[in-house]
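Question thread 4412

I'm putting together a teaching handout and wanted feedback from people who do this every day. The idea is simple: show students a protein as raw sequence, then show them the structure tokens that encode its fold, then repeat with a second protein so they can compare. Below is the first pair exactly as I plan to print it.
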Amino acid sequence: MENLLLYAHAGSRNHGCEAIVRSTLKILNLNNVKISLATFRQQEDLSFLATDFNLNMLEYKKYEGLHPIRLFDAGLRKLGLSQNMLFSFSQKAIIDTMDKNTLCLSIGGDNYCYGIPRWIYYTNRMAAQKGCKTVFWGCSVDPGAINREMLEDLKRYSLIIARESITYQAFIENGLTNSVLLPDPAFTLDTKLSKLPEGFISGNTIGINVSPLIMKNESTDGIVLRSYINLIQHIIDTTDSQLALIPHVLWEHDNDMIPLCRLYDIFKDTGRVILIDGNYNCMELKGFISRCKLFIGARTHATIAAYSTCVPTLVIGYSVKARGIAKDIFGSEDRHTLPVQKLEQENQLIHAYNSLSAQESDIRQHLSSFMPEYIGKAYKAGEYVRKLGIS
């Protein structure tokens, strides 16, 4: 292999995406290979990745609004003449880098969870035409979303690495023989211990993460924010712990800082709540999370940072990935996840937190004994890649 192409990357102000790039390159440990990163937000990756990696940045071109290419593409689709014109323009620089000496890793593990990812289907067809080996890297897919079109695309991959057993079982049941089960690569992410902000007490601070995404999936309008408000007040009233509000995604359209700032404004005068700012990279955020007593989080890779550093964690989830990862670590998702769709009463989150707190010692002990081997399994992804005849 002369070239490595990491594609379907959304941008590093989603620090889960940043964590996947960093941990992927750590696992593969490649030398004398040109590494290209196909990204939707190049400037973010220049800010968070370029200082540590020599990456050839390739940006997906955007044709928005009434751009002629977008309008022409819409016309062709309506006439049933072509489904791919827009993709061929937006991905031209990416497709041009491919040849038979290129290994292509689809690193957006969630991308098959948000509608039909025909733009990725197109990339995969082009990679196959050019003789590239392709890997669907660290993925989760809702079993109910697997239709004939998606299955045809999944069969096209040289290798699929499912990051949790619910997805893996769905692949097996659909007859896929090119899949293996290994932990999310971000379990291997390095931890960087930055200076703690004033008020953050290592070992006696409870980490809090909430996202606009889970708020969009709530069953009752406003229930998520009200539940977090009640939880924070409960912790202030019943413990001596500090609370750290920790963002993990900071995109304009999906920004954890928006709900976290609302929470901070309510409780800032208590002296018990700290807001971590949005300028840290994923390793530094993992460093803050690693020094928490407990963690209540919505973003998958924030909770992975907690799990991997043996911090007892409650996941406020909405998708198969949260359930599957918890199931693989604990044997059951019960008591470790609270699906946001089932959040109907404002005291449910308090009850789930109380259960987590009561089991803190047992959970920490389980994670301490379980994680070394589990994290070790994530490195086996590199071995599977080498079995493709690529080194």
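The second pair follows. I'd like the answer to focus on this one:
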Amino acid sequence: MLKTKPSARIKRRYILLQGKKDSIEKSIIDYVGILGWAKAAPVFVKNRKNQTILAVNREEIDKVIGSFAVFADEIKVLRVSGTLKGLEK
């Protein structure tokens, strides 16, 4: 299997969110649609009590964070970082 070049790989940002996974998925799909979901390539990394870590494509992070404004009472962005270790500080 060939290794992906650094310029071709997906560069991600990690978002620490307060909210449920279902409402997070719904808000992203409602705001940016299926095509936006595919471009953002969100991956749920960890689910703690009421906190979720979401990995998102770096170029689409503004649209994803903007989608959480629709559900401001259910979803709250606590922190954004380039590394998982940076979220824990």
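Top answer:
Good format. For the second protein you could add a caption like this: The chain has a mean pLDDT of 91. The helical segments are 21-40, 61-67, 84-87.
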